[in-house]
Inverse folding.
């Protein structure tokens, strides 16, 4: 299984990165019995759709997962809608989208479309369900409800290791404060891609984002093997967030950057 950071800046696009978007891929067997690569997107924030083209032909996406419906995590769904609807050789048809239940209305609002537009020609929206497993080729996707001002979900993806020796797992926090759902999603995970949008002592409101310290605490509670910090705003120094996380988590810590790749 392979993780590629398409965009990782928190709350907005930034000078070095698009907003949240992560590409997860794994080798598997297609419907024709031949080998193929399966690809899922975790979020599609502002600027991410253009950057995605550096890593993947957007026609080859098998599933889009929207962790929640704040604009910095889904605004480029409109760009993807245009791509699928008006592709020069003909409409591409719908791709599955796992999202909160009001996703159609939210995407319609971003695009400024009327009530007649339901995007069914381009997307098949399906709701997150706790305890339900979505399968995409060799990948299994599980949703865990987390704490944010709107309905939000962490996502755990399990699939074949890059070496072909067994299975590996990664968890993407989406946006959340520390909560039981996030610990459950990250339990014993190989790679924990975790937001750290707040700074301890500077951002005191709770129920919105993690700090580096709280991300480290969750990683420790969950016994995660490796912590990758993301969703850090342009006004925050990423290495300071990583240093803060290291005071609570003894395992490996990295900061997500555009174009970073992990093969698990």
């Amino acid at each position: 299984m392979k993780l590629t950071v398409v965009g990782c800046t928190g709350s907005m696009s930034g000078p070095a990165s698009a907003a949240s978007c992560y590409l997860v891929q794994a080798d598997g067997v297609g419907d024709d019995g031949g080998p193929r690569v399966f690809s899922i997107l975790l979020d599609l924030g502002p600027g991410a759709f253009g950057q995605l083209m550096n890593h993947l032909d957007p026609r080859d996406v098998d599933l889009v997962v929207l962790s929640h419906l704040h604009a910095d995590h889904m605004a480029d769904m409109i760009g993807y809608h245009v791509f699928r609807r008006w592709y020069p050789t003909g409409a591409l048809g719908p791709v599955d989208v796992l999202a909160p239940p009001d996703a159609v209305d939210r995407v319609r609002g971003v695009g400024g479309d009327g009530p007649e537009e339901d995007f069914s020609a381009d997307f098949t929206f399906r709701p997150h369900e706790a305890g339900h497993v979505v399968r995409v080729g060799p990948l299994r996707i599980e949703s865990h409800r987390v704490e944010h001002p709107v309905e939000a979900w962490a996502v755990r993806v399990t699939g074949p290791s890059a070496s072909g020796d067994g299975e590996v797992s990664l968890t993407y926090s989406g946006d959340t404060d520390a909560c039981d759902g996030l610990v459950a999603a990250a339990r014993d995970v190989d790679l924990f891609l975790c937001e750290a949008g707040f700074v301890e002592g500077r951002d005191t409101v709770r129920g919105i984002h993690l700090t580096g310290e709280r991300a480290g605490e969750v990683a420790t509670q969950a016994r995660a093997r490796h912590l990758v910090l993301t969703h850090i705003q342009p006004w925050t120094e990423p290495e300071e967030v990583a240093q803060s996380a290291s005071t609570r988590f003894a395992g490996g810590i990295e900061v997500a950057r555009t174009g970073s790749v992990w093969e698990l």
The longest strand covers residues 21-29. The chain has one domain: 2-263. The mean pLDDT is 97.
